């Protein structure tokens, strides 16, 4: 069996080795140091991967190439290992073997010095960097390793300014000591390093300048730039040498055109629970261990950073799909999402985009998408409070508006996701506005993390809430009369004043004729005190009701009745129809209590917005009835009905009730 020889000193080289081995191709990986071997072995084992460590002379390299029947040689050494690449290419020429140079892929979304805000100077070599450093003052944080350290030691006028970060290998430390660096000038750590850790090191050594190479994402280039910008340090960037070569995908195809295309690719959408490692299911954790790429928001990637996996900070569905599509070399991808995928998650939209853009079906027929459930926040929070949650109403107020008063009045137990502290304050204010003064509020922030906080109180207690982090809220309304689910609020329960009001018997028939749906969009034109609008809003908990009124006294009564009857989804529009209707959402239902003589205009506008709407009119005067009949002429309706209602109510006169008649009302229903 012909094998592939890979000279690897990079993450890309290690990934290539495992991709080839997974496709049944034997691979020998050469690394320069024992530490490189250790890192490769930490990434996992595979029976088709053989590892050889140790620096090779030109003669040893030629002997290695001549000693086996290699199918091809891949140079996956570091972009700055120019001499090593030159020796590999020369040895391949001598042995008449194809040498494929693996290029480090540029990320189109990669942060640049210009976009990071860091003060940056570009140079072409360590010697140029030293010349520039001698013209500057302050301590130096060197992040380029120990290979070219002698250039800095020999060239710097003041060696005490220099602090170096190197790999935690004894030979590296010994090299630094031989060159004259003291223990406090040597920092031994293995990357990758986050922005915060880079910034902490810059501050610890009081560095005014950082030296780095243009290493790209794999070398943590963005995190270094951001840390420098944060601490005010300037950055010397040693440019990446210009080189010719192939991308990961191109090399895989050259090593067998069907290899990469036929290999099964798996994308895992994983619910990771609250965010802490302890709340992640074992199944999701194992998927992360098996992944060669993990995508997620910053706080999620922080949780799994110790796994040492390649990661990409993304959370918008389109950006994730674009990145996955543009990087086919990643075969085992995990996309982390908070909580559980079935509870207000972006998984549905992401899966749809992956399918629509051919990532799953067309471009890669062997690509499968699976979903792994996580612990939903409602389950975790309820457990922390010792509650059962099967009878909770579940809402998300995270970036959206929902009828919280309506849900609480219907269910009495509500769980809500919020936009952090601001969302909690908004909930508290809304509950007070709608009269839920004694509702118990439980607010949890940073759930599952060591700094988890759970507070209890009433809405008044959370008007000034400021704890950071995404918050979850549980609301309990214990003392509350049962809500009447049928229409027909007593007239006496409305603020009335002198404004006209549709009486409860006529209102009951009119609402029945409207045939509302839960998500209806209702226009109540000439709303008066708002008795019809309020009843509609209480029935259409997921819908929207607009009460249009021009009379100032009636507008004030409308507002009072909105809050008295907890009509959260009722919006009051001050103005005269049809002008006031222009910018409203298209209605599904329209109720006309008063047209101001402009019936034809306002119905024309309503039908223009939605020809299929259901229209109910209350008519008292014969003149208005005539206008309605004229309006109906020449039109075809799927439903047309005229009902006259005559209502008499008893009034006590002495010891005897007397029936007092109200004005007869025509209830007219039209639907095209």
Please bin the fraction of helical residues.
25-40%
> What is the count of DSSP helices, taking H or I runs of 4+ residues?
24
Q: What is the straight-line distance between the termini?
A: 76 Å
Please give the radius of gyration in angstroms: 36 Å
Q: Give me the secondary-structure category.
A: alpha/beta
Bulk shape: elongated
Largest sheet: 7 strands, mixed
Order of adjacent strands in the largest pleated sheet: 24-23-22-25-26-30-27
Strand content: 15-25%
**How many beta-strand segments?**
30
**Low-confidence parts:** 257-262
- The average pLDDT score comes to 86
Which features would summarize this protein structure in a list?
6-stranded parallel sheet, 7-stranded mixed sheet, 672 residues, elongated, alpha/beta, 34% helix
